[in-house]
């Protein structure tokens, strides 16, 4: 359920905001257009929002400023601590994409950035099935995440990272469960979502899935 990466989350916590600002050359392309990515997720959100993988709270802040109620879920204590300091008074619960405190009312939007790839494809399907029940009849899912058009494109990115000496990036691409657009589209359609994609940089796409009645 992504928890095999918890030590990585804890280690990233202190430096995460520097990385998203482009100050880590190894991950600069991954976080290119970061502000636009967050703004696009906010633009596509409506109503009460459940956010998975709150991290250091950057998206949460923008959702709140846009007037949304936010239910935050984050597995890493170090990340939660930073987010709670950044956004006083906001409740961020311990949990992950599959195991989290369930609200007793429907939500209108489920969002996440840079996190859904921590699930295997079979776990992604479990999550989508679960979210289809949590959302109201016309609810939506908005994910900003790394994905690839083909498996060959992913292999090429790994090779390029090695060539540039970006060992950590190459290791991430090999270790984590980055999938392809067609697999994601198939999974969402299976649970009656209409899906569209928008590319934001060489790695990250916005996935917009709207529940069909």
Automatic annotation (TrEMBL):
Boundaries of every Methyltransferase domain copy: 49-139
Annotated GO MF terms: S-adenosylmethionine-dependent methyltransferase activity
Signal peptide bounds: none
Binding positions (S-adenosyl-L-methionine): 53, 74, 96
Domain of life where this protein originates: Bacteria
Keywords: Methyltransferase, S-adenosyl-L-methionine, Transferase
Database matches in Pfam families: Methyltransf_25
SUPFAM superfamilies the UniProt entry points to: S-adenosyl-L-methionine-dependent methyltransferases
GO biological process per UniProt: methylation
E.C. number: 2.1.1.-
Function text: Could be a S-adenosyl-L-methionine-dependent methyltransferase.
UniProt record similarity statement: Belongs to the methyltransferase superfamily. YrrT family.
PANTHER family named in the record: TRANS-ACONITATE 2-METHYLTRANSFERASE-RELATED
Protein known as: Uncharacterized methyltransferase D8M04_08870
């Amino acid at each position: 359920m992504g928890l095999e990466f918890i030590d990585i989350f804890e280690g990233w916590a202190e430096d995460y905001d520097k990385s998203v600002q482009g100050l880590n050359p190894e991950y600069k392309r991954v976080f290119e257009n970061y502000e636009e990515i967050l703004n696009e997720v906010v633009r596509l959100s409506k109503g009460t929002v459940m956010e998975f993988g709150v991290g250091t709270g950057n998206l949460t802040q923008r959702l709140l400023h846009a007037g949304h109620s936010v239910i935050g879920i984050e597995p890493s204590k170090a990340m939660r601590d930073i987010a709670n300091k950044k956004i006083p008074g906001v409740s961020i619960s311990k949990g992950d994409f599959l195991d989290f405190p369930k609200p007793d009312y429907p939500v209108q939007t489920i969002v996440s950035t840079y996190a859904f790839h921590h699930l295997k494809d079979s776990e992604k399907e479990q999550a989508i099935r679960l979210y289809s029940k949590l959302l109201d009849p016309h609810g939506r899912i908005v994910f900003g995440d790394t994905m690839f058009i083909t498996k060959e494109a992913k292999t090429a990115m790994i090779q390029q990272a090695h060539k540039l000496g970006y060992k950590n990036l190459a290791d991430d691409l090999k270790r984590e469960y980055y999938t392809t657009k067609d697999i994601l589209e198939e999974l969402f359609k299976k649970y009656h979502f209409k899906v569209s994609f928008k590319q934001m940089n060489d790695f990250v796409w916005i996935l917009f899935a709207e529940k069909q009645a």
